[in-house]
Specification:
This protein is of the alpha+beta class. The protein folds into 2 domains: 1-42; 44-222, Porin (Beta Barrel), CATH 2.40.160.20. 16% of the residues lie in helices and 55% in strands. It is built from 2 helices and 9 strands. An 8-stranded antiparallel beta barrel has the order 1-2-3-4-5-7-8-9. A hairpin with a 5-residue loop joins strand 3 and strand 4 (108-130). Helix 1 runs antiparallel to helix 2. The longest helix has 22 residues, at 2-23. It is elongated. 26% of the residues are buried.
Length: 224
């Protein structure tokens, strides 16, 4: 009976999520998370998360994690049998890249290029708690919903191509419980779908466009 209730809850959440994606509404997404967590509050753990994200995008000729930004959101966690658990949430994820002009000594002169992309992400994670290391390992996927993008060269807005409204990717990470209320984690993510086509329009085997790669450190506050 309890398993059927869980399946029914997951089905309702997925339907709500698909509607939210079509409407592309931050308010509806937040509402869907809150309603889903309240509907099956027993056995679930919810909370807030905030941190810092650094990112790069393939094919931008920058080759480094020079773009930083704040990230924040909500999460809901469900403990399964033993050391296994699952987690999903909603997260504001600013991505993009930066490139700096440098002199012959390698010193930064000025910001040459900047790409800012804003996403709302819904990560879905499978977690395993290790007894020996007192750490929680996690792996999963995410769906990103584009909120907006801006690109400039030396302060002048440019447009090298439109970004797709949605992206999906893989997430891996590790976290540690600091206390009953707080935990700290580090995650890495890479998009499996193309964020946008190369400005040149070229496609080479599996390289079909530009892909987002991110590193994130976040602090979680657990409600219960």
């Amino acid at each position: 009976m309890q398993e059927q209730e869980h399946l029914h809850w997951l089905k309702n959440f997925w339907i709500t999520l698909k509607i939210s994606m079509k409407l592309k509404s931050l308010q509806v997404l937040i509402f869907s998370i809150l309603i889903s967590s309240c509907a099956m509050a027993q056995g679930f753990e919810a909370g807030l998360q905030a941190g810092l994200i650094t990112s790069q995008i393939s094919g931008d000729a920058s080759g480094g994690y020079y773009k930083f930004g704040p990230t924040a959101g909500l999460f809901v966690k469900r403990q399964f049998r033993g050391a296994y658990s699952g987690e999903f949430g909603i997260l504001y994820a600013p991505k993009g890249s930066k490139r700096f002009a440098k002199n012959a000594k390698g010193e930064i002169l000025y910001e040459e290029y900047k790409l800012s992309i804003q996403y709302i992400e819904v990560p879905i994670l499978f977690q395993y708690a290790t007894d020996s290391l007192a750490l929680t390992l996690e792996i999963g996927t995410y769906i990103g919903i584009l909120l907006g993008a801006e690109e400039d060269e030396q302060g002048i807005l440019i447009n090298l191509g439109s970004f797709r409204n949605y992206e999906a990717g893989i997430v891996v990470g590790v976290s540690k419980r600091l206390s009953d209320r707080f935990s700290f984690g580090i995650r890495g993510s890479h998009s499996l779908t193309v964020a946008r086509k190369h400005p040149s329009g070229e496609i080479w085997r599996l390289n079909r466009g530009q892909y987002n790669t991110c590193l994130m450190a976040n602090l979680k506050f657990h409600f219960n």
